[in-house]
Amino acid sequence: MNILIVGGGVAAFEAAVAAAVSAGCKVTVCSKEAVLPYRRPALSRMVAEELSDTAFYFKSSAFYQEKNIEILLEKEAVSIDRTRRSVQFKDGTALPYDRLILATGGDAFIPPVAGAGYAKVLRDYADLQKIRQELAEGTGKAVVIGGGVLGMELADSLLEAKYEVTIVESGPALLARNLDQESAALVMKQLASHPGLTVKTNAKVRKITPESVELEDEILNASMVFFSTGVRSCTTLAADAGLPVNRGIIVNSKMATEDPDIFSCGDAAETPFGTFGLLSAAKTMGHIAGVNASGGNEEFIPEVYPVRMMALGLKLFAAGKINDAVSEVSGTDGNYQRLTRNAQGKLTGVILLGDLKAALQLQKELVC
Ligand SMILES: Cc1cc2nc3c(=O)[nH]c(=O)nc-3n(C[C@H](O)[C@H](O)[C@H](O)COP(=O)(O)OP(=O)(O)OC[C@H]3O[C@@H](n4cnc5c(N)ncnc54)[C@H](O)[C@@H]3O)c2cc1C
Prior knowledge:
Layout: E1 2-6, H1 10-20, E2 26-30, H2 42-46, H3 53-56, H4 61-67, E3 69-72, E4 77-81, E5 86-89, E6 94-96, E7 99-102, E8 106-108, H5 125-136, E9 141-145, H6 149-160, E10 164-168, H7 181-191, E11 197-200, E12 205-208, E13 212-215, E14 219-221, E15 224-227, E16 231-233, H8 236-240, E17 249-250, E18 262-264, E19 269-270, H9 279-293, E20 307-311, E21 314-320, E22 327-330, E23 336-341, E24 347-353, H10 359-365
Parallel strand pairs: 1-2, 1-7, 2-3, 7-18, 9-10, 9-15, 10-11, 17-19
Antiparallel strand pairs: 4-5, 5-6, 8-16, 12-13, 13-14, 20-21, 21-24, 22-23, 23-24
This protein binds flavin-adenine dinucleotide.
């Protein structure tokens, strides 16, 4: 069986490895990136730091040869012909498939702001290379628009690269998806004294120019501006091929689309449980898509996927429901712990800020 995988992230990698185990499967991975599949979260650190190849890439090319997985780089799929069962590529070539897996991930969301084209995003290795080149050319001021986990990690690396950084957040608090009110206030207090860092909340961006970010009531000088404002699933290939898409490419719990020969997984896919945008979820979905595309029968059952962050002197572990009423709050000296339980007393949500010693144990106790 000829299994074609479009994508070059963790979902494509896991799908390929899972499919390659099945006897008689020829597995081909087509990625539009120029490098082998790698650990995408490492990009944030690599803005300011070198990482070894073994820490960055999932595997070297020898691994793929050994597993009989063909990897085609700089190979961007542009359309799918479902009648002929083939995928067309930007370079004018086409490849046939018996089973197709769409693991096209997500693109950074660019808000509709005047001058948005002057801002950068950090989504892939090519973005990283451009950013590093610019950083090497000087020091100055940077603005990161978006105060979520990725925005804060990026701000941390920019500070390390000797930039003064302002985080601009349109909402009332940073890390809004991961913190409750008390811990958000604690974070703001701790960041107030962080050298080189300014945080602006409730701040709306009006315009970006090559030298500045204009807010409603203030102009921030900046030689580099970044959007860290979320991700949108890459659904175009599937939609153009007539497959149902919504926030992502619609799949069932087996990761199959409406077309039983086409699967999707990772950030690109919308499962019956929603989209996830998290590495561990993409990894599991990729594995299941690979197993099922090669004739297996596994089901995606989502878990509670925790978020961990160590940036700007903060240590955070957050998972599950964070704002339910039934919860125990404790903590001293800048440490904070909130445990949320359901009516049966089972742990459904955790926020740990500062002291993360209990994280592993609490993760084991969490229920969906
Ligand atoms: C900087 C950064 C830090 C992150 N940190 C964390 C973290 O700490 N924890 C966490 O859980 N998650 C984190 N994430 C999110 C996590 O990386 C994603 O959830 C995960 O990578 C999704 O995997 P994926 O394989 O579905 O998609 P992706 O990793 O986005 O991979 C999709 C791949 O498909 C390729 N592609 C797209 N379209 C085509 C096409 N038409 N033809 C060929 N190839 C194509 C893309 O070039 C890309 O290589 C981070 C993401 C970023 C960008």
